[in-house]
Write a sequence for this structure.
């Protein structure tokens, strides 16, 4: 019977020790980290409406205009002499662009909804690398084992684009096969005719970054970041990393 009170006393003492243990702070002039990031890039439909009709435009054809979006998977390395975060990254960008009808906005009173192009992405993708600067602002005290940072910054990069954007014009503007459905719109010709060509896409393109993020720091051992901003297109995403 005397054993039980001794065990309880020992357990309570251990709990007190855990509660009073000071947080583990790694007091160094700089840290480094590596991680993986995921992003979704997009252009809002409300912005594209300025240049192309959608199915809900008055008098437009019942073809849903494709959304412009992409996904990014990348690796990043950070050199962190606080409050600075110098970042280098390499990433793969895959396109989520579906094929579809692009009916450009006419300036006249009576728009022609049959003069649009049908566009199909063929293996459209890219590889990018670059660097960013992110300034770190502590939101919660760093004296704790877990704290929250605000990150603000931007940077530049460059990428190589592969793949093509095949297109069909309406029959009256056909290029490759001028005898194929010469009076039909592009959304009919794409089923029966060869593409009229490919859209000219620059192979080497710059990358511009503007970033606003929230980072959860786990005792300078690991971080989770949620961010958004501009990555040539609008984006939101997350990143996970280890600190050393």
């Amino acid at each position: 019977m005397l054993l039980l009170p001794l065990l309880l006393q020992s357990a309570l003492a251990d709990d007190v020790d855990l509660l009073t243990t000071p947080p583990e702070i790694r007091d160094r002039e700089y840290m480094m980290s590596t991680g993986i990031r995921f992003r979704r890039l997009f252009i809002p439909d409300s912005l594209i409406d300025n240049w192309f009709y959608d199915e809900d435009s008055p008098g437009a054809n019942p073809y849903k205009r494709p959304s412009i979006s992409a996904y990014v998977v990348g690796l990043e390395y950070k050199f962190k002499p606080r409050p600075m975060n110098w970042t280098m990254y390499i990433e793969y960008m895959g396109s989520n662009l579906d094929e579809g009808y692009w009916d450009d906005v006419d300036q006249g009173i009576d728009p022609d909804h049959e003069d649009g192009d049908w566009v199909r992405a063929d293996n459209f993708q890219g590889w990018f690398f670059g660097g960013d600067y992110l300034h770190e602002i502590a939101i919660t005290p760093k004296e704790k084992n877990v704290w929250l940072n605000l990150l603000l910054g931007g940077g530049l990069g460059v990428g190589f684009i592969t793949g093509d954007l095949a297109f069909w014009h309406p029959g009256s503007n056909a290029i490759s096969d001028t005898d194929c459905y010469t009076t039909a719109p592009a959304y009919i010709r794409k089923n029966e005719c060869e593409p009229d060509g490919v859209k000219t896409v620059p192979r080497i393109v710059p990358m511009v970054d503007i970033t606003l993020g929230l980072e959860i720091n786990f005792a300078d051992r690991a971080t989770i970041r949620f961010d958004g901003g501009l990555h040539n297109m609008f984006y939101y995403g997350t990143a996970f990393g280890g600190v050393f």
About this structure: Residues 3-20 form the longest helix (18 residues). Confidence is low (pLDDT under 50) at residues 1-8, 10-20.
